[in-house]
Amino acid sequence: MLSENLVSKVLGEALKEGGDFAELYAERRHTVSMSLEDSRLERSSTGLDAGVSIRVTRGRAVSFVSVDSMEERDLVEAARLAGQGLAGDSAGMKQLELITLTSPHVIEVTPASVAAREKAAMLQAADAAARGAGGEIVQASVGYQDEVSEIMIANSEGVLAADSRTRVRFSVRAVGARDGMMQTGADSMGAHRGMELFEVRDPADVGLVAAQKALIMLDSQPSPSGKMTVVLHRGFGGVLFHEACGHGLEADSIEKGTSVFAGRIGEQVASGLVTLVDDGSIPGEWGSSTFDDEGTPTQRTVLIEEGRLAGFMYDGLRARNLGAVSTGNGRRQSFRHPPIPRMTNTFIHAGTSKPEEIIAATEKGFYAKTLAGGQVEPASGDFVFGVSEGYTIEGGRVTTPLRGATLIGNGLNALNNIDMVADDFEMHIGVCGKDGQGVPAGSGQPTLRILDMTVGGTEI
Amino acid sequence: MLDIARKALELAVATGVEQAEALAMRTRSTRIRVYQQEVEELASSTGSGVGIRVFRGDSVGFSYTSDLSGDALAAAAREAADNAEVTAGDQFMGLPEPAAGFPELDLYSEKLQQVPLAEKIELTREIERTALERDSRISQVDSATYAEGEGLVAMANSKGFSRQYEENTCYAFLQAIALQDGQMQTGMSFTTGREPGQLEPAACGREAADRAVALLGGSQCESMTCPVVMDPFVSASLIGVIGSALTGEAVQKQRSMFAGLEGQKVAAGIFSITDDGIHPDGMASAPFDGEGVPMGVTELIKDGILQGLLYDTYTGKKDGKPSTGNGIRGSYRSQPHVGATNLRLAGGTASLDQIIAGVDSGFYVMEVSGIHSGTNPVSGDFSVGASGRLIRGGQLAEPVREVTIAGNLMAILKNITVIGNDNRWVPFGGSIHAPSLLIGEMTVSGK
Prior knowledge:
The complex is a heterodimer.
Chain A: H1 4-14, E1 21-37, E2 40-58, E3 61-67, H2 72-84, E4 97-98, H3 116-132, E5 137-155, E6 159-178, E7 181-191, H4 197-200, H5 203-218, E8 221-222, E9 226-232, H6 238-246, H7 251-255, E10 276-279, E11 300-305, E12 308-309, H8 316-322, E13 330-331, E14 340-341, E15 345-348, H9 355-360, E16 364-377, E17 382-394, E18 397-403, E19 405-410, H10 411-416, E20 418-421, E21 426-434, E22 437-445, E23 448-456
Parallel strand pairs in A: 4-6, 8-18, 9-16, 15-22
Antiparallel strand pairs in A: 1-2, 1-5, 2-3, 5-6, 6-7, 9-23, 10-11, 10-15, 11-12, 13-14, 16-17, 17-18, 17-19, 19-23, 20-23, 21-22
Helix pairs in contact in A: 1-2, 3-5
Chain B: H1 2-13, E1 19-35, E2 38-56, E3 59-65, H2 70-86, H3 111-114, H4 117-134, E4 138-157, E5 162-180, E6 183-193, H5 201-214, E7 224-230, H6 232-245, H7 248-252, E8 273-276, E9 297-302, E10 305-306, H8 313-318, E11 327-328, E12 337-338, E13 342-345, H9 352-357, E14 361-369, E15 381-392, E16 395-408, H10 409-414, E17 416-419, E18 424-426, E19 431-434, E20 437-445
Parallel strand pairs in B: 7-14, 13-19
Antiparallel strand pairs in B: 1-2, 1-4, 2-3, 4-5, 5-6, 7-20, 8-9, 8-13, 9-10, 11-12, 14-15, 15-16, 16-20, 17-20, 18-19
Helix pairs in contact in B: 1-2, 4-5
């Protein structure tokens, strides 16, 4: 994308005034997105984002400049600006050395090789499948995005890395109506893969599943409130642990001591049944990449092992500040954003119980089958999650669908109150937001049971 | 930038489409973060790009590029035309007719650029310092931040529209962390303006500290049904959700609880809300929207009666109504979609203290979380995480956390019994001018 000479020159300029580390991040990204609603393909759009950012650090201080350009004079000026605020001794520049890693993320069918009409047909197929699920489906909205991003990263420690990332995502939201009541159901899929993703799962199936969820919720009763035993269905519950525990395991909150996990490595922080892992190297997974956005190869990091706190997720800066090694978790939304410690694919390991055993062992409880997303207060670990598909568990059986429920609790308490973990692991995709930056993140978990969790509903 | 918009427009017209539009933007932003009185991060970005929208027959296509070279613009024009080949045609599609006049707005302060960086850094340090000095229980401040942005927005279309405007804003915010007996609570505050002189760093730091300390020692309360007082931060979140259901699109697509209710009573008689796209203090104000339609003031709910909806050109034509100037565009990267600009809720006469004094037993909510996942704009079901203080005998009592408040939005709107006189601009989830509210009854779920 940029010549090695130019990169060296820019990094040299960035370190002229001082600074102990300088980095260049260049990116050229093509995106395609389509959306369908009212059975009409409403929008089809393409875009190009291209530019470079320069980051200089000195101790804990970061200076960052981005430009929507790849022209030499703009890059040199950006480097000069970035270096300005950090006067002092310069660490100097090491010789750049290209790191070559074979990407495990094989793209069989590039998105660009598939005609827009064919992509449009997939959206139509999902819409037809959703509407075909029942006459009560009154609306379906279908979204498709693909993105191909070419990245180049170089820094004053000699790292020179290039990465190519192709991601495809498909989602459906269906609305069902009955007697003036409306309910929605949603489903999505996505991967760090090409169009072969749709050979694994048909777009129509995503539409059908979304519609079925909406139809089930038309039979729902208002959710009761109070402390209950909660069974989290596989897959979707992973986002709860992403929010409630994952963010507190990112090294920036550890560095500032704003996390409940700070200074507790080796301590028992969760039920012995819990092993929590972040792994950005899983081939083809949504949150995966060959390198992170600082040129560090991604890896598998055990965060909690059988309940004991085992590790944190580091980017380069926090690793340097805390005397640790980057775990390949330095991520950014685009070249316009500085990297920060972020999760990649974060999940709870499969256990040994069978999901049906867990339900059967629950006399009275709440079955959270699909979560709608949520929010956490990182300092306290308090979280809240909407349940888009929930059920009553009575006498060891899943019975009435429930609407309007919210799960509320505390990350540490929830981790400690897990008393059964099944063997039916599944991953889900999402876009994680932090400091105003959104990045693709996967999360997953097997079906598991949490004792004594608060369900907020409309009925007391 | 207007030159670039015109050049992109020419290239788009040359592809043979019937109608075309180009939006060109140049932006500059700076962000300062201070931690323990040192600058932790200094970030600046400059950007520019063009979004091209074309209509082929009555189908729309769109493409954007951040590369302004002639080749990249030509490629974007071609892609936009290609995209119009696959979208579905619709008789309501097309550009707006040229308008007769546009509002004169002063959205740019020369002072923003004139204030030296060192002063902006000092302002950020003051925010952190004030919070730390406010109360000994404030252990630290996370993300004391000053940010500023400037934009030059230029648009040209094949119906003869060709205009540009400049705007800038700045804001500062912080999250104060209070610590007591091993329990951490956070409190946030912000201050907004068009130049640093309009910001109030000390008041901002104090408020964040007070909000964090007020929640210390909180625990779950018993589940109950009771009156709920929402402070302006919280009522702004609620109003944001209501605003997104008051668009022509949400109603036409049956995604709104307000469908079919125009002219009917949808809220308490004391409740009135307008969308004001030209308010001088509104951060979303502009002379024209993302389609080149003049922005203005739209009454949405007046004295509890639903007056009308927000429209862009497309959704307006569909309902046989003019656009209300609500074709919103976040940047040149996106196509216009109908949405709120600055939502203003009409204030009442009671102070927050008076509202609390009038509640015998209830819940004062200071923070809500999970507002998007917890709200169903179609059914109106609403259930979100909340923290705040109990109210007993008209006085604030013990702090509460880890509970939810729930109800149906339609019932909540009709059950607003008092509106505060403490309107302020809240920049979360839109630009919202919100007062405190008393809701007669909601479900609080705790123990």
